[in-house]
Structures are given as C-alpha cells and as structure tokens.
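Regression test case RT-17, inverse folding.

Input:
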C-alpha cells in the first residue's frame, strides 16, 4: 500500500510517501520558524494560514521526488491530534477531501504515536515490547509500548514539558526562538561546576516529572548573577545538565521497574546531543538496546505519520465520513491494531 502522510499539528508542514513494501520513498518538511520568531513563539492563526499555503506545493514536491502522481496514492494519513486545532484542521480537511476525490481510504493518526514509532523508519528498528521516552515541546512521558496502539503511560509531567522548559529558559537567557536548540548550542561554551541546578523529583519514588521549578531556578540565577556572555553559557550548561540527569535517572528507574531491555527516545528534545550521549552511556552499562530516530525525524514530520497510517490502514482501520480533530488526545486511549 502506498500512503501519503500529512503532518500539520503545529508549525511544521510535513509531507511523505510511504510504501508498505519499499519503505519511505520521499518526504519533505517546511518549518515556520522564521514566521513565528519575531513573536517569540507559535502564533496559531499564522500557523494555520501557512499550512494552507504550503500543503499543495509540498505534496507536489514529494510526488515529484518519488516520480509518482497523486493517482498512484492508495491511502492517506493525516495528523488528527493532539495539536493546534486550526493547524490540525488544515491537514485533516485536505486529507479527507483528497481521499474522497480519489476514492481511497483515509486515516487520522495520533501525533505522539507517530513519534513513538518513528524509529521503525530506520534500517534496524526496535521490536516490541520496549520502553519509550517521549520528549517534546508539549509532552514528557515514559511509555510502555507493547504493540501498535498498545501503550501504557507509566510516567508523565506534572507541569511543563521538557521542551517547553528548554524554550522558556532560553528566552530568559535572551536567546532567539526556538530557545531550546539555542540553549543547547550556548551550553557548549559553558564551564561546568559554577552553577548547580536541582534534579526535580529524583529524591522521591515514582516516574513522573516536573520542570517548572527549573525555570524559576534559572530566573533567580540570572537575576542574581547577571547576563554577561560567560555567565549565560554557564547557566545554560547547568540547566542542561540538570535536565539530562533527571531524564536519565527516570529512564533507569523505568527500565528497572518494567524489566524491558529496549529504550526508544523520540520527540524533538531527542535531538539533544548531551542527552543522547548520556543515555547511550547508561544503556551500554545496563546492556540495554537504545534506539533514536534520525535527527530529521525527531522533530515533526510527515514520514512518521505516513508510516503509522500505513500500518493502521493495513489493519483495516478507516475514517468515517466527516472531519474530526482532537487538540487534546490521550495516547493511552488509542485502539490497538
């Protein structure tokens, strides 16, 4: 089955073509970072309008890369949630309209399921079951994954997601949007040991997270020690150390609690190199297999949506007539395939 994937949950327009037999054939992504940078964050109305402008040209681009026409497509998958409602509707309405016009099945895909299964786009994917650390701007979760649609959330954030904490701390340090990537780059110039940030909720049992306190600690540190370049870099490094160690401790606990020997790290924060190195060292010591998507599939993309959509369409799932999107959609309420 040849599936067209459409991702429009936030500020990336992602299009991909996935074949059940040949794998990923083509994909393209347009990022709206420049559109939203002047506002310091995503403006939902602007995101929706930009998706509408870019969707058709990107579909044509992906089809051109694959040397296919729209009539070769046998199924369409689009992001149904969670995300910004206007952005979701842009992709969902186009996907449903194309499916109706072409007489082919369509399926709405859970955005986080796409991230969880993005490593299956790689040559050596994990096998079920595995533990997943899902870390992005909107989510921080530890998930026990037993199969397609069989997800148990065993750890969640009580307040801010880790990506949001990175971005907001970056903003405190006067960095541009998106702040998380800029903070990680600034941390490369930091001197270790000057500042020590707390590791939230590691001194108590359980697998839940909390990152709002780290933002407050960063704010107080900036106010007390100033904003010269070296101080900013030292604060960035100390903040990153705290986040990385916290995530590593929680992953270690979750592996011990579940007995699983495979760890998948997915979502935009999974691109952080300090985190990748720390988790790789931890997994090597514990003889745990570690899986990351390639960097271009850590952030939002159409390839992960096309892959999940293909699996669910092959399992016989279809959308009913009409268009529904879910700005909030718990991952553990998905149907198993």
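Golden output:
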């Amino acid at each position: 089955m040849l599936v067209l994937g459409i991702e429009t949950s936030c500020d990336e327009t992602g299009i991909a073509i996935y074949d059940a037999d040949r794998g990923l054939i083509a994909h393209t992504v347009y990022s709206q970072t420049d559109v939203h940078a002047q506002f310091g964050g995503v403006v939902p109305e602007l995101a929706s309008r930009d998706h509408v402008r870019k969707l058709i040209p990107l579909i044509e681009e992906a089809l051109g890369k694959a040397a296919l026409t729209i009539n070769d497509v046998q199924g369409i998958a689009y992001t149904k949630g969670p995300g910004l409602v206007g952005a979701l509707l842009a992709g969902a309405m186009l996907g449903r309209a194309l499916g109706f016009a072409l007489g082919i099945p369509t399926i709405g895909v859970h955005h986080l399921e796409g991230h969880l299964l993005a490593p299956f786009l790689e040559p050596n994917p994990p096998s079920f079951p595995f533990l997943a650390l899902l870390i992005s701007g909107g989510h921080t979760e530890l998930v026990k994954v037993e199969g397609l649609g069989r997800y148990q959330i065993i750890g969640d954030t009580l307040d801010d997601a880790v990506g949001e904490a990175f971005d907001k701390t970056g903003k405190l340090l006067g960095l541009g949007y998106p702040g998380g990537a800029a903070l990680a780059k600034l941390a490369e110039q930091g001197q270790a040991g000057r500042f020590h940030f707390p590791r939230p909720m590691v001194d108590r049992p359980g697998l839940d997270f909390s990152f709002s306190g780290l933002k407050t600690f960063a704010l107080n540190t900036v106010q007390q020690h100033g904003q010269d370049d070296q101080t900013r870099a030292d604060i960035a490094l100390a903040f990153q150390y705290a986040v990385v160690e916290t995530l590593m401790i929680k992953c270690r606990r979750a592996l011990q609690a579940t007995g699983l020997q495979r760890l998948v790290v997915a979502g935009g924060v999974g691109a952080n190199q300090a985190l990748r190195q720390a988790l790789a060292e931890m997994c090597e010591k514990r003889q745990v297999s570690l899986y990351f998507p390639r960097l271009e599939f850590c952030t939002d993309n159409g390839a992960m949506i096309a892959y999940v959509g293909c699996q669910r369409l092959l399992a016989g799932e279809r959308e009913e007539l009409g268009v529904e999107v879910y700005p909030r959609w718990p991952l553990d309420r998905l149907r198993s395939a």
